[in-house]
Amino acid sequence: MYNGYYKGHGYKFQAVVAPNGLIEDLYGPEPGRHHDIYLWQQSRVGEEMNALPPHPDGGRYVLYGDAAYRKPRARNHIACAYPRHLPLTPLQVHLNKVFNKARVVVEWAFGHVYALFALLRYSHLLRTGQSAVGDWYMAGCLLYNFRTCLNRGNQTSLFFNMVPPTLSDYLDAPRPAVGRYDHVVEAYEHIVAAHPGLA
């Protein structure tokens, strides 16, 4: 579980954050020793993107990611900033600024989840193998999405000038069919059963 980059033990998650401020895809937890590209491959987000209908202008859909995703295995699905150590054209410098501003929204989402749910900040309570750290974090992300819908937006949606769905529309949306979401569906069903007014 040790992560040499952060010099500590823990879990890693990968998130896809939509311009409306919602965490649309959350994969994890995986042991902290794994590289981000490993999480990308295991999440199968690339396969899901391949199944999307063609873009109207003939282009392809891409996600914005940090430099860790600048690998051949993710290149068809993730756009990254150009490496700064290479000589860049003025257009590439401009694109780097645009990419970096768009990419940071995932960090905003992670930061908001930690800010909203104090339990996730108490490292002495978050012991792998002794507490449900991964489940707590996923529940925090789900509640973050609920809060975003109830508030009709957040910092990300304001940045992109997009409005998230209402909580009712969010809860009525079709559930993912991929088995890796079973635990999130169970958490959702438990929350709805405890609070029938939400559904």
Structural key phrases:
alpha+beta; globular; 199 residues; two-stranded antiparallel ribbon; 12% strand
Commentary on this structure:
The protein has 199 residues and is of the alpha+beta class. It has one domain. Helices cover 42% and strands 12% of the residues. Strands 1-2 form a two-stranded antiparallel sheet. A two-stranded antiparallel sheet has the order 3-4. A two-stranded parallel sheet has the order 5-6. Strand 1 (2-3) and strand 2 form a beta hairpin. The relative contact order is 0.14. The model is unreliable at 1-7 (pLDDT under 50).
The secondary structure category is alpha+beta
Mean pLDDT: 77
Cα distance, first to last residue? 38 Å
Beta-strand segment tally:
6
Please outline the major beta sheet.
2 strands, antiparallel
> Which stretches are poorly predicted, pLDDT < 50 over at least 5 residues?
1-7
Which helices and strands appear, and what pairs or packs with what?
Blueprint: E1 2-3, E2 8-9, E3 11-17, E4 23-31, H1 36-43, H2 45-50, E5 63-64, E6 78-79, H3 90-116, H4 133-150, H5 155-160, H6 167-172, H7 182-194
Parallel strand pairs: 5-6
Antiparallel strand pairs: 1-2, 3-4
Helix pairs in contact: 3-4, 4-7
Tell me briefly what this model is:
By secondary structure, the chain is an alpha+beta fold. The chain has helices spanning 36-43, 45-50, 90-116, 133-150, 155-160, 167-172, 182-194, and strands at residues 2-3, 8-9, 11-17, 23-31, 63-64, 78-79. The chain has one domain (2-198).
